[in-house]
Specification:
Elements (H helix, E strand, L loop, with lengths): L28 E2 L3 H10 L1 E4 L3 E6 L7 E5 L7 H18 L8 E6 L8 H14 L5
Parallel strand pairs: 1-4, 4-5
Antiparallel strand pairs: 2-3, 3-5
Helix pairs in contact: 2-3
Length: 135
Amino acid sequence: MARSVFSDKSCSGLSSYNGSKSMKRQVFEKLGKNPAFQRVYKNGRSRANKYLVMYVKTGESGPNRYGFSVSKKVGNSVVRHHITRLLRESVRKNDALTKEGNHIVIVARKNIKNCSYEIVDGAVIHLLKLHGLVK
């Protein structure tokens, strides 16, 4: 009988596995459909840098809710999804540092196409500071 690769308990990465099919980590709350985005665009403030535009609607109750927009101008679907994943990771990492009660939409600009995670993360933090959302 073949021995399973995952049966070895000494593997440190699998020690927290609880048997569920999904091992998703804790994530931030997302904005819903198009009307939620439109409310933020219409009633929120915007700040921009070389790579991103951030719209923030303050005065909401509950935790921050985030939405991402990466248009076809940025690149094909592979590039757009890569940028979206970088933005989501940056927001996930920095969500604990931001004040609560905001709806935030982050729009990617064309210049972000070939940026590393460090640059994207720095751009997100820069815009959070411009909006005064950092605790």
